[in-house]
Amino acid sequence: MTRRTIAKEIKAEGVALHAGRLVHMTLAPAPSGTGIVFRRSDLNGAEIAARYDKVSETKLGTVISDATGASVGVVEHLMSAVAGAEIDDLLATVDGPEPPIFAGDALSYLSLIERAGIVETDGQKNAVRVLKPVEVASGEAAAALTPAPSLSFDFEISFSSPAIGDQEFSWEFSREGFARDIAPARTFGFVRELEMLNKMNLALGASLDNTLAIEGDKVLNSKLMRFPDEFVRHKILDALGDLALAGAPVIARFEGRRSGHALNNALLRALFADAGNFELVPVA
Fold first, then answer.
1. What kind of architecture, by CATH, is found in domain 126-282?
2. Is 18 a catalytic residue?
3. CB 141 within 8 Å of CB 34
4. Which residues contact 206 (CB under 8 A, 6 or more apart)?
5. Is the separation of the CB atoms in 142 and 153 below 8 Å?
6. Radius of gyration in angstroms for the set of CA atoms belonging to the chain, rounded to a whole number
7. Is 159:258 a contact under the CB 8 Å cutoff?
């Protein structure tokens, strides 16, 4: 069995999406079996395992916290890149409350991982194989995991704005497919909500360079769009990052209908609440 980590330390800096301040980030190799760990260098080196049971907030991004209250927010884009590159062990150190938002995608993080290089290490690598359907719902939104031979996604979204409308996308995981079809998809938001969020000290780092901005029936910065259906692709990006908090690759079909971070996390909690829902299987 082999696990994967990055070959060397790599540093980057950028603005945090919600805090709106400059954050320095270091991605470093980690020993086999470590998993994905976030470290807050500005909080006495507090370390938080990137796991579903550490999720403390999901309103405007996935936030993980430890027992002391130290937290790291908006981890889903980096976690998506980690899952897309099939990295098992990594230490991500930040000197602020979130990793940088960069271009609002996972490709920015994937590029860093590729620049650092990837090495294989000895160690047991398991996957979580889903054995029976698990579903969670809230109003018109729902998310489900069903047994399947490999990881795949079926996602649909519906927004009243014609700029998004109804979108569906089906995708089967592969490293090459992630880099091509999912990682480049940018996050998005509605201009009408920005003033309210700013008053709450949120989305202070959102800009027309890192967020697709929707106003009425238009995308104000549509020149940044990489796909006609970029919005649903980004939802898959988020879901992949949230599923990576399982602590091991998931083998299942993910079905999302207007699902967001809250339901994605609820789905993992429901999965692991019953040992009959899954089994751990070795990955060659």
1. 2-Layer Sandwich (3.30)
2. no
3. no
4. 17, 101, 189, 194, 197
5. no
6. 18
7. no
Look at 87-96, 125-134, 185-194 and tell me which has the smallest mean pLDDT. Answer: 185-194
Residue type, 101: I
The CA distance from 119 to 146, in Å, is: 32
Q: Which CATH superfamily is domain 2-122 in?
A: lpxc deacetylase, domain 1 (3.30.230.20)
Count CB neighbours of 210 within 10 A.
Answer: 22
Burial class (CB in 10 A: 0-12, 13-18, 19+), 2: middle
Strand pairing category for 212-215 and 166-172: unpaired
Instruction: Give the span between the Cα atoms of 81 and 168, in whole angstroms.
Output: 22
Look-up: residue for tokens 């879901």?
239
pTM score, two decimals? 0.97
pLDDT in tens, 45-64: 999 999 999 999 998 899 99
One-letter identity of residue 57: E
Angle between helices 76-84 and 107-116 (to 10 degrees): 50
Neighbours of 150 (CB within 10 A): 12
Nearest to 231 by CA among 245, 206, 211: 211
Catalytic one among 18, 77, 234, 261?
261
